[in-house]
Amino acid sequence: MTTPPKAQAIAERELCGLVNGLAQQIADHVRQRAVTLGLTAAQATALREMTGPMTMRDLAERMSCEPSNATFVVDKLEKQGLVERHAHPTDRRAKHLVLTIEGSELREQLLELLTQESPLAALTAEQQSALQSLLEKTVAGS
What we know:
Layout (H helix, E strand, L loop, with lengths): L4 H32 L4 H9 L6 H8 L3 H13 L3 E5 L7 E5 L1 H15 L9 H16 L2
Antiparallel strand pairs: 1-2
Helix pairs in contact: 1-2, 2-3, 3-4
């Protein structure tokens, strides 16, 4: 038996509300933790996403923003001595963003803070993994 369109629309609206609510809780959590390190939420997001050398375009994609916005954030991080721009190993036109030693240390502190009282802490590791799988399937399907 299939779900009537109206009931399905209500269920999707409720699910979207929950996903948006979780995203807002995560954003608030990042913002609160960033402040304790003297960072903006955008700077904290950039540091969190810098898992290794990457281009500005890659970072912008991970941050879900335009490259010009990521450039603004990286400019601030660079002035703080947390990020450096290096020549890209294979593309003369691109730069690789690389964390400095200070940037790596601050990133580690940030990651530790982000695990404390996280909105996802109410879920077990297995539940978090299941949620991640479901979200990946949903995102890949769109």
